[in-house]
Design a protein that fits this description.
TIM Barrel, 20% strand, two-stranded parallel sheet, 2 domains, elongated, binds iron/sulfur cluster, disordered C terminus, 16 strands, disordered N terminus, DNA polymerase, domain 1, 10-stranded mixed sheet, alpha/beta
Length: 372
Amino acid sequence: MIETNQSTQPKPSSLLGYSLADLETIYAEMGEKPYRVKQTMEWIYKQRISDIEEMSNLPANLRKHLSDTYYLNDLQHIETKGAADTTRKFLFRLHDGRYVETVFIPASVGLKGKQSTRKTICVSSQVGCAYGCKFCASGLAGFTRNLTAAEIIGQMLSVEKIAEQPINNIVFMGMGEPLANLTNLTKALEVITGHWGFNIGARSVTVSTSGLAPQIRKLAEFPAPIRLAISLHGATDEVRDLIMPINKKYPIKELFDALHYWRTHKKQKISLEYILIEGVNDDLDQAAILAKRAKGLNAKVNLIPYNTVEGLNWKRPSESHCIAFRDIVAAAGINTTLRLEKGGDINAACGQLRLKKETSEGIIKAPVKTTS
Ligand code: SF4
């Protein structure tokens, strides 16, 4: 069965980073029975224990080996900020002293005024971001590192524990470009959608990207029907270039070719996210082109009036202009929303996440982000 040799033990890693298949392989190599894998996963994702020693139906030698070799969630909760609309933003410290932010949005009223039971978490996928979208607070500080799958899952476990509410909707719209961290993203998606893991329906999981066309094609192969959102923010290359540096590498034609490829694999409608910025991308001609592109893809359009970001000079268009823009897109038969952002009063709306931790020594800033 298990033999432990401290001198040859690898550096501990988190059990949260493993899928069922990964753990089956690890346990098989240790000579453990397959049902021990199921028991282990139940302790982590059903019982939500915080210490491996609590896995009381595992043999003592297995528990000791697991405790010596692995840990569970090592995110340290530093701070919570609550918004008037009950949105809450959490700051976590990672094992290397970096920080990430995660947002929890318990919707009380859904579409058409109906009561909603949706409880959404907006998770970060990287510390900082290398893509530098011009509206985005996260891009301001540059890229530091990818989050591991365990750190992505750790955000969910931590938020559920602190908020004392189960999550049933996940958006990868926190700090970082998730598709630039594809390996850890797909591993986390396995845990999120797995019946042995979080067991959240794939249709309640949305990955948002700035438009990494080759990675969109790769993620299309993920077997579960997850949703995709694109930070478009410009309907022509000329306008998108002003906002999204990634557009130089993967211009609109290449991006939309990848989106059509995605549509051949997934039934769910793609969402085109479009932040309305006064005098930059809010010309009504852009609305007409956007409508045409959305129609060709059978996509939804989410219009988001720009949220002021400290350090950036752009402005939100007037409400009447936002409505005029929306009406042009909607008139083409596109499912269009003009989003009333939640969390704007705590900088937790799209494009506003940024690590900012005040301490007695001053302000610690690390990159965190927004939309991808
Ligand atoms: S919007 Fe997303 S991809 Fe763009 S800079 Fe912000 S985090 Fe990065």
